[in-house]
Amino acid sequence: MTTTTLDATRGEERRPARDPIGERIRDAFVYVTDTAKVGEALDAVKRSRMPAGQAALVFIVDAQGKYKGFARLSALLRADPESTIMPSAEGAELAVPESMEQETAARRLQLRDVPLLPVLDESGKMTGVLTFDDAMDILEQETTDDILFKAGVGDVFNSDDHIRSERLTQGPIW
Asked: Could you report the per-residue pLDDT of 83-124, keeping only the tens digit for each?
């Protein structure tokens, strides 16, 4: 049963937290270790069966699988194949924990110029990615839920929403 809570700091009603992002991630992504050369990263992309959008980033992890950043495929194509991958790395601060709310993670991806958002477990190991398409699906669903919630229309099996809907249809609005 879903419950609503009152935000005491603002006096507004708010919904409980949604499902964590760890439930929506894809566990297939291209990665190399932080000691790999650019040529090895390009070979990993060539060997992968990822769709083009998911192969646009090569994730970098250490020997224990902890996330270190990512390299854009475009940067790798311009780099010397014999150089190490770490100078091409960026986005070390971009990763989100598996426990983060789906909408929050999707909004973070929406604001960044990347097609994938790395998702980490509690120890910092990379467990998957959130794709831009999945993030937009999450935001669309969250927006729909917010509109229905504010309109007082919701799941008919949820008693709180049912009571709110009856008030709108049977009682005065003001």
From this structure: 999 999 999 999 999 999 999 999 999 898 899 999 999 999
Neighbouring-strand partners of residue 119: 96, 128
For residue 1, pLDDT beyond 50: no
On whether the CB atoms of residues 59 and 130 are closer than 8 A, the answer is: no
Mean pLDDT calculated for residue range 25-41: 95
The pLDDT assigned to 144 comes to: 85
Taking 3-state DSSP, the helix, strand and coil percentages for the chain, each rounded to the nearest 5, stand at 35, 25, 40
Question: Phi, psi (5° rounding) for residue 74?
Answer: -60, -40
How many CB atoms are closer than 10 A to CB 84? 16
* Single-letter amino acid, residue 149: F
Mean pLDDT score of the chain, rounded to an integer? 82
**In degrees rounded to 5, what are phi and psi of residue 151?**
-80, -10
Written as six digits, the tokens of 165 are 């809907």
What is the Cα–Cα distance from 91 to 76, expressed in whole angstroms? 15
Helix, strand or coil, per DSSP, at residue 148: helix
Residues 6+ apart with CB under 8 A from 58: 30, 31, 32, 41, 44, 45, 70, 71, 73, 76, 85
pTM of the model: 0.75
Query: First-to-last CA distance in the chain?
Result: 28
